[in-house]
Write the structure tokens for this entry.
Amino acid sequence: MLALEWLENAREVMSRIENTQMENIRTAAEAMAGTIECNRWVHTFGCGHATLPVEEMYPRIGGFVGFHPMIELPLSFFTRITGEMGVHQFVFLERVEGYGVEIMKGYDFDSRDVMWIFSHSGINNVNIDIALESRKRGMKVIVYGAASAAKGKKTRHSCGKTIFDLADIVVDTCAPLEDASVPLKNHIDKIGPVSTMAFVTCVWMTITTVAEILAEKGVKLYIHPSHNVPGDNTARQRLDEALAEYKRRIAGV
């Protein structure tokens, strides 16, 4: 059954992450924890399906204040497929050098911040723009993607480097470069991608480690609670407190 083949492929990727990336995940988590502890931001960025790990981590139940999502609508919302903001436009835009420079102009950054970028292949221009601009501002750049599988791929950026070359810390998602993992009878292309599952696995392994580091230091985390559990009468209050803390930090107070 192809369903079980995909499941086995997914498990294999998760096992490779566990067996090879724990040290890198810990290093990334320590950098993020240091940033959050001093009331600064871990900015998160991706394009296309690499925005899914950004949306998965914050805001959501079990996430906590300290992660700032940067998602550009034209680089994420292409579910209309064709027409306005369709797939053709997205494929074009993520390769436009300089677009990331303009994106960075819309935010305030600090050298104590961290830029966490998700990029499966590491070769497209917008992500590389973001990494270059982050480095100019003195931020540490952390990149999650298929680093080993993408080794040797030629960048599309005039700087001559892939995003993995520009990163201070790399966590390999251990996904295959072609992403889709299951061969299909009478077809050239495979089905069943695994990169999103790999990204999300790495995200929660990282964020739980960040939380562990901060909790051991006695740092209060503003966690988004589930507000759907019967009998928890303070959940909405705790959610309001978390959002108030986010607003305080984003305002620079």
Observations:
- The two ends are 56 Å apart (CA to CA).
